[in-house]
Specification:
By secondary structure, the chain is α/β, with parallel strands linked by helices. The protein has a single domain, classed as Vaccinia Virus protein VP39 (Rossmann fold, 3-Layer(aba) Sandwich). Helix content is 31%, strand content 27%. The strands form 3 sheets. Strands 5-4-3-10-11-14-12-13 form an 8-stranded mixed β-sheet, with helices on both faces. It has a 4-stranded mixed β-sheet with strand order 6-9-7-8. Strands 1-2 form a two-stranded antiparallel ribbon. Strand 3 (48-52), helix 3 and strand 4 form a beta-alpha-beta unit. The N and C termini lie far apart (49 Å).
């Protein structure tokens, strides 16, 4: 691996030199700025957070310097090595590194890697890099309170949620979820989340346009996925962050589209 280094809030951050989708955007300070600001508004020094699909550690590092503990879960062997390096060079002792995939149970699976996009690896039943999976309910069994869960698993989200139902019902952690419909029961997942969360927002990082979700059927944009923000009790700071620099015509259009889904 040919690694290069940049700075991330004063920390050393390593990434592959040809990583255009994640590493280079982080180096240019152009990676998921809206979602980052919204996430940082949810945490404090006592928070326990879970980064599912941690990749090379962008969110793990940003969370770790502000919270009590972070569980960083990344099944990909190459990505995990960079994640581990980023955690260790910054002496982040409050990060629990797990080289596994989050799913609905403990078993052996495969991981399909995208050579052109390090953030586009997908868990598979049939072929790829051999990995182990486990449920968040098992991984977090000794934690008393989970504050936040970030999930980015390229279509495996329903399996992750299925394996985290006990934690979700018990703690109602704030969730950031990249929702990519697939063959693994996405309608069932959305229905479960709607029963457990009063507020589900679709957040558009590029236009910074949030809108509430009333239905799980038509939440997707042109890219075939949606970034969702789930929280029971919204606070003033949430609305201020969400409405900052909103392009209001797109915001109103999003609201109207969401209402039409009801």
């Amino acid at each position: 691996m040919n690694l290069v280094k940049c700075k991330l809030e004063g920390m050393d951050f390593w990434y592959q030199s040809d990583d255009k989708m994640i590493g280079q955007r982080i180096a240019l300070d152009k990676f998921e700025k809206f979602e980052t600001a919204l996430m940082e508004n949810q945490i404090n020094s006592e928070s326990v957070c879970v980064d599912v699909g941690a990749n090379i550690g962008y969110y793990t590092l940003l969370l770790a310097i502000k919270v009590k503990r972070v569980y960083a879960i990344e099944p990909g062997g190459e990505s995990f090595l960079i994640l581990k390096k980023n955690v260790e060079v910054n002496n982040l002792k409050n990060v629990v590194l797990l080289n596994i995939g989050a799913s609905d149970k403990k078993e052996k699976k495969y991981l399909i890697r995208d050579k052109n996009n390090q953030g586009n690896s997908q868990i598979s039943d049939k072929f790829g890099e051999r990995i182990l999976t486990n449920a968040l309910d098992n991984i977090l069994i000794n934690e008393q309170k989970i504050s936040l869960i970030k999930i980015d698993t390229q279509g495996w989200e329903p399996k992750v949620i299925e394996g985290a139902k006990k934690v979700i019902k018990r703690d109602a952690p704030t969730i950031f979820l990249e929702y990519t419909p697939g063959e693994y029961g996405d309608n069932k997942m959305i229905n479960f989340l709607k029963k457990n969360y009063q507020n589900i927002w679709s957040i558009n990082d590029f236009a910074e346009v949030p809108w509430p979700i009333f239905s799980g059927v038509k939440v997707l944009g042109k890219n075939g996925y949606a970034d969702l923000f789930l929280k029971n009790k919204m606070e003033l700071g949430d609305y201020m962050t969400m409405l900052k620099n909103v392009k209001y015509k797109k915001f109103i259009k999003g609201i109207m589209n969401s209402i039409c889904q009801k």
